[in-house]
Amino acid sequence: MKSGHRNQSADDADPVRMTRELVRTPSVNPVLEAGGAGEGEIAKLVAGWLRGWGYRPVTTEVAPGRFNVVARRGAAAGPSLLLNGHLDTVGVGEMAAPFSGEVREGRLFGRGAADMKSGLACVLNVAARLAGEEIPGELIVAFTADEEHASLGMEALVASGVAADAAIVCEPTSLAVMPAHKGFLWIDVFAGGRAAHGSRPDAGVDAISHMGHVLVAFEEESRRLARETDHPLLGAASLHAGTISGGSAPSVYPDRCQLVVERRTLPGETAERVMAEAVRVLAVARERCPGLDARVEAGLYRAGTEVPVTSGPVEGLVSACRRAGLPGAVEG
Ligand SMILES: [Zn+2]
Fold first, then answer.
1. In this predicted model, what pLDDT tens digit does every residue of 39-72 receive, in sequence order?
2. Which among 147, 206, 221, 277 is annotated as catalytic?
3. Which of 111, 139, 172 is the last residue of a domain?
4. 147 catalytic, yes or no?
5. Which of 25, 55, 169, 257 sits CB 3.0–4.6 Å from 71 for a disulfide?
């Protein structure tokens, strides 16, 4: 059924044109790069397009200057499909022309062209095409803020009660279908020492050297994970040191050292379980370094996710890819 209220048509929703306009609308995550634009302008752009196709998008400020845009159509009584993309990008660093959206030799250039303004354009194209159709269930289009840092937008979306029977996140995957995704936990490790002048080994306790024992024990744990964990699509769980800091001067025993370890989790691994492992790692380090004064704290955690490869959305995407002449690979 054609809606008579739309003042734009699906023909206006060319994905390349929209990707260009999205790239030309900076939305650098301001937490990652000082002065980053955030999602204000890009939220206005996508909401405007959606309105033009007859949707009633709702824009929500999830944190100062940070916006989600959600639009729905169809009957809530039927099965629901959520299409998601994030509006923010990482920083531009030294890029020469980050917001040009220039097309050269069949490629579109600019920050976020791949991750994930082209994905947003695909979602928008679907929204435009379905705008005039009767659909048997509900379509929920959800564009979220802050995916590149702490996922404030997705957290707010979930907290708002939005739920769906199936969801497709249009992140770049080289057109593979990815039904499984690792999660992560950031583990803060604090080691204490005793400050003293470098000439006073009798008084000083070297927190950085002590942390060395902790690092080695974590490295052994990473080898254990490689040996003992496995997932058919995701492989083994892993961990690595992310950042380390400590010490005040070459001639002073450092009284503290802080390490952040990132543990990549498999679906089903909880933060509690990973923290219990981290406590065991500390116990190993303490055996080797009896004076070790160290503790671990859980930082940001995002669970891994998976849906069965035999589920409707996965099989549907694979067959859609094949119809389009694409391999339809299933990866993690
Ligand atoms: Zn992304």
1. 999 999 999 999 999 999 999 999 999 999 999 9
2. 147
3. 172
4. yes
5. 55
Cα of 182 from ligand 1 centre, angstroms = 14
Query: How many structural domains are present in the chain?
Result: 2
pLDDT of residue 7: 57
Please confirm, yes or no, whether 228 is among the known catalytic residues: no
* Residue 76 token pair: 């809530």
Same domain, yes or no: 126 and 192: no
Q: Strand, coil or helix: what is 152? A: helix
Active-site position among 39, 88, 138, 146: 88
Specify the CATH number for the domain of residue 232.
3.30.70.360
108 and 197 within one domain: no
Of 8, 33, 7, 6, nearest to 18 by C-alpha is 8
How many other C-beta atoms are found inside a 10 Å radius of the C-beta of residue 293?
15
- Tell me how far the alpha carbon of residue 294 is from its chain's centroid: 30
Give the pLDDT confidence of 68-115 residue by residue, as tens digits.
999 999 988 899 999 999 999 999 999 999 999 999 999 999 999 999
Predicted pLDDT at 88: 98
